[in-house]
């Protein structure tokens, strides 16, 4: 079985360019993009779409962006982009020539952007230093947030993920941790607005029924997992690592899953994300998942996202057995 999201996460690859420990103050962390991730077609397509989007907005300004890392760090492009998109005027110099002036300008632009997006600086995946230092991952997070806010119909590639290595200088030396970072949302439906999500309706209009629905789905899961000697008591936590979800899909859909394809005892968020992505791929292959679900929501124990996934299996294999008092009713 092929999967777009299979990562070898057991050891640090030899081609990771980590900075020497002396360049990091003790306790300081730096995040590096895995070189192989730069070659990912989705990652390359995302950059292409964003470059074309920026240039389409700024073509009357005679500003042309060719490289997101090199062309956005000093705040000039972001300044013009924000003025066009948000129709605001910023009191900053047009062209900043020195590093200190560029940083000052960039800080003003980012502060205005955060106000437009209604974001707190400590909640973002970028900051002034990372943008100024030409950090591509931070720049992409920033541009994706701008696109989603100012032009939500922009066709960004869905489910763009990259592998990153975080290095930290500790008193015992350099510590490295690998993880997978999500840049764009996982969109499993080409026209999500055409479908009513029953769980949005449930949580909004009948929250008192949520526990009853959870209980029925737990019974359904346990009935199908008992032959494996597994049981579920807490939907919010026991599906976060993807293991039970993968085994449940295998039981219901008749998959033989090689243990080499997933982590039976995941020990990191990256391994958990790998498992959940594999489960999402299986559901999509079986045409079971008809509403967008972000894999990171499953890992974070989001009840609504977890119920959406489980209900896609429940509705196929036991829909006609749902008791009347727990059925989810939605308007036509």
Structure description:
It contains 13 helices and three strands. With 332 residues, it is mainly alpha-helical. Strand 2 and strand 3 form a beta hairpin. Helix 3 packs parallel to helix 4, helix 8 crosses helix 13 and helix 10 runs parallel beside helix 11. It starts with 28 loop residues before the first strand and ends in a 15-residue tail after the last helix.
Question: Radius of gyration in whole Å, from Cα?
Answer: 23 Å
| Mean pLDDT score | 79
Structural class: mainly alpha
Biggest sheet architecture: 3 strands, antiparallel
Strand content: 5-15%
- The helix content is 40-55%
SS summary, helix count: 13
Any descriptors?
3-stranded antiparallel sheet; 332 residues; mainly alpha; single chain
Task: Provide a concise account of the structure shown.
With 332 residues, the protein is mainly alpha-helical. It is built from 13 helices and three strands.
Helices and strands, with pairings:
Layout: E1 29-33, H1 41-58, H2 68-71, H3 76-86, H4 99-117, H5 128-132, H6 136-150, E2 161-170, E3 173-182, H7 198-205, H8 210-225, H9 235-238, H10 243-253, H11 269-285, H12 295-299, H13 303-317
Antiparallel strand pairs: 1-2, 2-3
Helix pairs in contact: 3-4, 8-13, 10-11
């Amino acid at each position: 079985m092929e999967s777009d999201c299979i990562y070898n996460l057991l050891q640090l690859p030899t081609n990771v360019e980590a900075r020497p420990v002396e360049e990091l103050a003790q306790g300081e962390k730096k995040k590096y993009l895995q070189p192989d991730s730069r070659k990912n077609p989705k990652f390359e397509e995302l950059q292409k779409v964003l470059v074309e989007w920026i240039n389409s907005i700024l073509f009357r300004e005679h500003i042309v962006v060719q490289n997101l890392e090199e062309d956005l760090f000093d705040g000039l492009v972001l300044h013009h982009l924000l003025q066009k998109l948000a129709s605001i005027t910023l009191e900053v110099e047009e062209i900043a020539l020195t590093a200190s002036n560029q940083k000052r300008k960039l800080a003003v632009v980012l502060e205005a952007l955060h106000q437009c997006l209604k974001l707190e600086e400590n909640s973002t995946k970028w900051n002034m230093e990372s943008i100024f230092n030409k950090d591509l991952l931070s720049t992409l997070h920033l541009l994706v947030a701008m696109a989603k806010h100012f032009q939500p119909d922009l066709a960004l590639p869905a489910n763009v993920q990259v592998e990153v290595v975080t290095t930290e200088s500790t008193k015992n030396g350099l510590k490295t941790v690998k993880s997978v970072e999500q840049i764009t949302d996982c969109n499993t439906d080409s026209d999500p607005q055409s479908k009513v999500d029953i769980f949005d309706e449930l949580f909004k209009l009948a929250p008192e029924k949520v526990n009853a629905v959870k209980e029925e789905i737990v019974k359904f899961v346990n009935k199908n997992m008992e032959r494996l000697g597994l049981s579920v008591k807490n939907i919010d936590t026991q599906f976060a690592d993807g293991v039970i979800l993968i085994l449940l899909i295998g039981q219901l859909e008749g998959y033989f899953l090689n243990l080499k394809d997933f982590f039976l005892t995941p020990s990191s968020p990256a391994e958990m994300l790998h498992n959940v992505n594999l489960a999402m791929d299986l559901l999509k292959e079986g045409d079971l998942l008809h509403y967008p679900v972000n894999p990171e929501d499953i890992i974070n124990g989001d009840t609504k996202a977890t119920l959406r996934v489980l209900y896609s299996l429940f509705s196929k294999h036991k829909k006609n057995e749902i008791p009347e008092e727990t059925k989810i009713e939605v308007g036509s």
